[in-house]
Amino acid sequence: MKAVFAFAVCCFALVLLVGVFGLFSTMPGEASQFFSAALRFPSQQEPKAATLLFVGDIMLDRGVEWQIHRSPPVGGGGDWTWPFQHIADFLKTADLVFGNLESQISNTGNNVGSDYSFRADPASIEGLVYAGFDVLSVANNHSFDYTRDALEDSMVRLKKAGILPVGGGLSKQEAYGLVIREAGNSKIGFLAYTNSGSPVWAATETNSGIAWIDEDNLEEILKDIRTASAKVDILVVSLHAGEEYEPEPNQFQKTFSRGAIEAGADLVVGHHPHVVQSLVPHTIQGGSHGWIAYSLGNFLFDQDFSQETMKGAILKLVVEDKKIKEISLLQTRLTPSYQVELIE
């Protein structure tokens, strides 16, 4: 008897469900849409594409600062957004923007004595924030232009402004450590090193400094890259190396960059030559490959003695489903008053 009763209840419920479905299917408007939506199962989330932009050398001292202080309005210069006013809207379309900072942002420290020592006004950070920078390498041959004090101060100021420094730190662990930012639904990792400057600037367990690389610690660095690649979806390695004003990479650039890709990096971005060098793929065992941009040239620098040093490149990377989907180089130029423009 119980079995018969249970069967009858099931039949009644089935008839009721069919009747309700028929009622809502014949009703126009919101009622029908609501019922259909209730029956719909959630679909798998579509991969979210992210755009990453990488620029070259940035220097906010010397001639760049001079132009900023004489920029409009007349008599009221000092607008640190001036160099970026023609390029900021484009940079802000990206999910993440990276560059190489060649002038410490500080009012501390003292000039080490070089004619090419750079230190930018603390107010200059306003321009970097306005332009939309997220991560900046501080590992280069100008890191110690105003001693360790200025480097430490500059890194603190960047962090307070929401910009992550990479390639420098208060200890070896921090300077050589992995910096991670999210873009879209991908985890992007950054490492930065310099082969230009001095090995004595290298951070230690007890002293601040930068991430120095040469033939002596190359294998150790490649191991760090292997470890880092397992922690992120896309790994970017920045290298400050090469010969100034040379259009071709030197042997160290090639050796390190290829080794970094083989160790697990997806992209190597180069700085220091102050002119644009080639963008090339590097195939590794198994058929996969990474990309090497040997030098992105000058993004913002006062080297107006040649056309090549007044031009640069922005590397555009589109990441989708945690992989590089598109990569391209976009040309930039500097106006005589040191404003960055995209060459259409």
Automatic annotation (TrEMBL):
Record-linked Pfam families: PGA_cap
Domain Capsule synthesis protein CapA: 51-303
UniProt similarity note: Belongs to the CapA family.
Protein name as it appears in the record: Capsule synthesis protein CapA domain-containing protein
Highest classification ranks of the organism: Bacteria, Candidatus Wildermuthiibacteriota
